[in-house]
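Sample A.
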Amino acid sequence: MTVSETSQPIELLLSVSRDESGTLGAQIENQLRSAIREGVLRSSARVPSTRDLARQLGVSRRVVVDAYAQLAAEGYLSLRQGARPRVSDTAAVASAGPETARPAATPRFDFRPSVPDVSMFPRAAWLRCLREALATITDADLAYGDPRGVDVLRSALADYLGRARGVVADPVTVVVTCGYSQGLGIVCHALAAGGAKRIALEAPTWPEQAMIAERAGLEAVPVRVDDAGIRVDELERSKADAVVLTPAHQHPTGVVLSGERRMQLLAWLRDRDAVAIEDDYDAEYRYDRAAVGALQGLEPDRVVYAGSASKTLAPALRIGWLVVPPGLLDAVSREKLLADRGTGRIEQLALADFVSRGELDRHLRRMRARYRGRRDALVEALAEALPEAVVRGIAAGLHAIVELPEAYDVRAIRDEARRRRIALETTLDFWPQDGDGRATLMLGYAQTPEPTIRAGIRELAEAVRAAAGRSQDPAGGATPT
């Protein structure tokens, strides 16, 4: 694309370096793209000509011409013969969203739950496995292949899940997915196609599950959880055709499905001819004893086992897996085919090698010790700074449930914590109907070093005191809701 140059050069604050990763053109593209997205360069703003920018940066003009052409193709720049390059109106409209879409300030103390310490991702080991996958991948595996996944990963997962979680898995029944959410959606679509109408969800649970189920055409029915897990008596009254549950470590309450409830649940599955979807999201992280075995091992013909690498390695991998009862396998395989024709095959081969080499086991051993130390630091800090708080649930996972006395206003605490840039969640984020109960906080500890945990809990205690003081002071106005 030819661009006519004009006089009156425009200066633009960009820089490139031959020592940086990425080509010079890619550096120009990334910086301009970010400036337009973030509103630094607004609608119709003029940008330097290719000749001027090449002079400013000390690069070949061809590098800038190619970068501008790419940005024009993506809709960020408007290039017309005889006119100065400008930011396109389309790009400006796309970047101008509500204020809530702007990136939030970085938290001073990050207690968000369910996020692993991604800084500990075993990059060197993963890179070795990825290189091996690229070096050995066959031409056939570079094509679409079986949408259920590559055979070597399905075999590796069947072996690992059998010995580590007690799952009854044949490689044929394993379906590789792009994370747990996709797996749940695929199963929900398969159930709906088979005539299911209603699916029970634990209450509380993460809200996206209801949206996924409803998008598949199922009615989502909440069933309460108590200290022994899901209430099977309420499940029986729900008339559900399926249920989604987290028996090893309920999310978010942290309880374990008791042995008695397990037997009741299995009886309900048989009597109702129903299906359970077992989300085994962080069962590898149990700190006080060995983890409870998977529910699927007791009833493999009626339980879909679901797991992912998001909590054990990193969410960015976007790899999950299902172990599917034979009666559902064809329907689930068809839904996976329609969803995306299959998860990335190079990454699947790398994960298969990673598991087979024992790298996953080594990583989990390292992370259990690290997370246990951080959880202990959290509990000790709470006992010192906020002694009225009670830690509920088992010693497991990536977050702790912290219950405060009924007099405390959880909304006021949440608002005060945000004002102090303390990132956390409460059970209201998972079950808004429970707004009149105890103030219950969800404090993640996985991505925060122990010294920072102690400092953060001291700051959180001050936030709790400040929120309580305002709610009890008539002059302080109404507590935010």
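Sample B, a different protein:
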Amino acid sequence: MLSIVITFHNESIFAHQTLRSLHISARFAAAIITNVEFILVLDKPTLETRQAINTYPDYSFPYIISECDFGDVAPARNHGITLSSGNVLAICDGDDYYSRNWLAESYQLSKMSATTIIHPEYFVSFGDLHHFTKQMDIHNPEYTTRGLLAGNYWGPWVVAPRETFNSCRYQTTAPREKTGYWAEDWHWNCETIARGFKHILCPRTAVFYRRRKTGLSGWVAQQGNRHKIPPTSLFNSLF
């Protein structure tokens, strides 16, 4: 079974488009995935976001909708993972789009190894900032673990066996004014590598990332915070 865990905050009507994108991907995967469920976590949602979720017209898959008050994507994701039932999980954000083959192809790859974490091959940003790149694969000759000292190789969109998330939970970084930390996905990537997990790309798949100047994932806020992540055991092992 595949559980699709999606966090929502202030996406408003964009939440409809994300759900539509993942519905298309889930239906495309129906031939190889017996059961699919959607876990929608509304973390301190705006009124418009709550209305968008509640009025979405197509709930053809089993759904769990849970509203919480964390104000932080890390515990919101952990909460969604706890509510899920799948042996394989897909972690998604609430205002992005996903290629039609993303769930099918990544699910198949995840079944090959219990220690593999799957990422989309291509990263395409749109909105307030336009960018296109191929993400890093551990089989790339340019890959080094030390590179994670300078930046995050991968975004938050992953597919992996349930045991991966049980062994490594996302770490809370809010309230950022007090912790000084950001980038829970960068920290999670580091911690999983420290525990022996392998990050690979799923060929011919893509995520389309909406870049906005405001909000929990706003790139202006991220730049101002300089992407400081919590201490990670990975860096202790490098020196």
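Observation for Sample B: The first helix runs from residue 14 to 28.
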